[in-house]
Structures are given as structure tokens and as C-alpha cells.
Amino acid sequence: MTVLGIETSCDETAGSVCRDGTILSSVISSQDIHAHYGGIVPEIASREHEKRLTSVVEEAMQLASLVKGDLDAVAVTRGPGLMGSLLTGVSFARGFAQGLGIPCLGINHIEAHIFANFIAYPELKYPFLCLLASGGHTQIWRVSDLGDYELLGETRDDAAGEAFDKGARILGLGFPGGPALEEASRGGNEEEVAFPRAFLQSQAIEYSFSGLKTSLINYVKGRGGKMTEKQLAHVAASYQKAIVDVLLFKLRQAVDLTGVKTTVIAGGVAANNRLRREAERVFADCTAYYPPRSLCTDNAAMVAFLGEKYFLQGARVKTDLSVVPNLSLTH
Ligand code: KG4
Ligand code: ZN
């Protein structure tokens, strides 16, 4: 079957076509306008989605060499995310599907991030542990089947992506902060600054990144806000390494706790090269997957792909299109 996926939960306007488990097209229009404001402005994000959706979807259809009549269903992210952005995507998708007389499915954005791994690795087998690290979430999930998830632990405060974004802002780097901080860290000595790593002594699967951010603020203040480019690289590399270390330490603890030796990483932070390299080392004795960077950050391919999986389940199809900004994976 052929499914059009639509993703507008944050600041990427994305459309994709999936047919029989294969992604035929994936178009992502990034709203660079937010860089002027140093962060995402929700009102602007929804207006930009509205402006871009039609052309993004048209392009996705063209790249897939299909016409609207070839579609069997539409899948759209209904949460979690920004209320206005989600509403724009869901209203568009609903109208689009109604016009064609085909069903429209509501998709959970977190679940879609996790399932992006199956696009890259069809051989991935249940059960597996997934570290989901994005701008809004940092969680470790045990995934036993489609729809069968157990939350093993999550962050108490900031998400890992937020830690990257806030760190980049404190260091005067650009937005989005993750890629900017990664770039600034090049050639830096990651042992230079001993940033704190929360909960390493504890068996509990939980994260905290707020102390790390405070520590960076104090470090920068201590230097009178002045740093050479080299020092900046050292600080960025040390800060990045502190995030990477705790993310993987807790995933490793979860592997040892559960005995599940297949791991995947998902979400925007999974695009980080340092994290990917370190994961190879930490999980050398496991089957560790990390999808291509384009499938880590927000995209509609993961939405179309998961939509098709649900649609093929028939009775379990999620036709709920209510928008839920704090939608969880387990209800
Ligand atoms: O999954 P995503 O695209 O959107 C959400 O669902 O939140 O994740 C966005 C987050 C942002 O905080 C961004 O700074 C971070 O992922 N990110 C990165 C990298 N690329 C994106 N963090 C670290 N290194 C990267 N290369
Ligand atoms: Zn996301």
C-alpha cells in the first residue's frame, strides 16, 4: 500500500511517500527563520508550516513519481510537539485525505522516531532498547513489538537536545545548537573541562542535564565571557562529551539490567557523530544500530513508514486525530 506521511510537530515541514515499506520520497523544509530569534517561535512555526505544506507534499508526490489517486492513506503526527504546528499539519492532512476519500491516521512522533530504525535496518528484531534523545525528550524504551513499549527511564529536567541548544546559546554559537556545538567542538580536547555527569553512581535509569548547563554558565562567567577559538573548541568538546557519556552510560546500564542486547538510538541528538562513534565502542558486544543522520532529525519518512505499519494491522489502526502536545507513548 501507499501512504503519504506528514510531519509538522516542530520547525521542520516534511512530507514523504512510503510504499510497501520502502520510502519513495522524503522532503524536509527546515524553517531557518528561527535562527534569527535564537530559538523556535511557535507562532512563526505554525505560519511557516501553513505556507510550505502544499509545496512540500507536491514535491514528495513528484519525487515518488505518483499522483494523488495512487495514495491509499495519509499519516500525520498528532503529538507530542507544538500545539499550533501540530494543528496545522493535522488539519491539512485531514482535508487532504477527505478530498481523496482515503483514511487519515494520527501518529505519535516519539514512536515514529523509534521506528525510523526499521527503515534503515529492516533486519532489526524485537525486543530492543531504544535511547530516544531529541529536543523535547530523553528516554530509554524497551520495545517488544509494535505498540508494546515500556519506559525504563527518562530525564528529570532538560532533554539532551535542550542541553545542546542551551549550551550553544551560552557559548554564543548558532541555532539549532546541536549541530553548531558539534561543529565548534572540532579539534577540541574533551578532557579539558571536567563537567558534571549526573547519576553515574546510581543504578536508576534517569538523566539530569540542568546541573551541566549551570556548570557551563559558571565556567564561562569565570573566564569573564572571553575565550579564544581554541578554548571554545575545548569547552564545546568537553560539554558534548559530558552529554554523550551519560546518555550511553545509562543505556549500557539498561542493557545490563534487562539482558536485552540489541540497542538503537533515535531522535535529533542521535545525529551527533561523537555519540555515534562512542556508541560503537560502548556496545561492541551488542547489536547496536544508529540510523542515517537524515532519519534521526525530524522527517516525514518515519511517519509514513509507521503509518503504513499501523494501517496494515487493520483493527489496530489509529484514526484518532486529536492533537496532543504532550502525547506519551504509553497511553
Ligand atoms: O528529533 P528532533 O529533530 O526534534 C524533536 O523531536 O525535538 O531533535 C532536535 C534536537 C535539537 O535539540 C537539536 O539541537 C538536536 O536534536 N540535534 C543535535 C544534532 N543535530 C540535532 N544534537 C547534537 N548533535 C547534533 N549533530
Ligand atoms: Zn523529533
Radius of gyration over C-alpha positions, nearest whole angstrom: 20 Å
- The separation of the N and C termini measures 27 Å
Tell the overall outline.
Answer: globular
Largest sheet: 6 strands, mixed
Short key terms for the protein model shown above:
10 helices, 42% helix, five-stranded mixed β-sheet, 331 residues, 11 strands, six-stranded mixed β-sheet, alpha/beta, binds 5'-O-[(R)-(carboxyoxy)(hydroxy)phosphoryl]adenosine, 20% strand, binds zinc ion
Write up this protein:
The protein has 331 residues and is α/β, with parallel strands linked by helices. A hairpin with a 4-residue loop joins β6 and β7 (138-145). 42% of the residues lie in helices and 20% in strands. The model has no long low-confidence stretch (mean pLDDT 96). The longest helix is centred in the last third of the chain and has 30 residues, at 229-258. The strands form two sheets. Strands 9-8-7-6-10-11 form a six-stranded mixed sheet, sandwiched between helices. The structure holds 5'-O-[(R)-(carboxyoxy)(hydroxy)phosphoryl]adenosine and zinc ion. Zinc ion binds next to α3.
Question: What's this model, at a glance?
Answer:
By secondary structure, this protein is an alpha/beta fold. It has ten helices and eleven strands. 42% of the residues lie in helices and 20% in strands.
Which SSEs are present, and which pair or pack?
Elements: E1 2-7, E2 12-19, E3 22-30, H1 42-63, E4 73-79, H2 83-100, E5 104-108, H3 109-120, E6 128-133, E7 138-145, E8 148-155, H4 160-170, H5 177-184, E9 206-207, H6 210-222, H7 229-258, E10 262-266, H8 273-282, E11 287-289, H9 293-296, H10 301-312
Parallel strand pairs: 1-4, 4-5, 6-10, 8-9, 10-11
Antiparallel strand pairs: 1-2, 2-3, 6-7, 7-8
Helix pairs in contact: 1-2, 3-10, 4-5, 4-6, 4-7, 7-8
The protein binds 5'-O-[(R)-(carboxyoxy)(hydroxy)phosphoryl]adenosine and zinc ion.
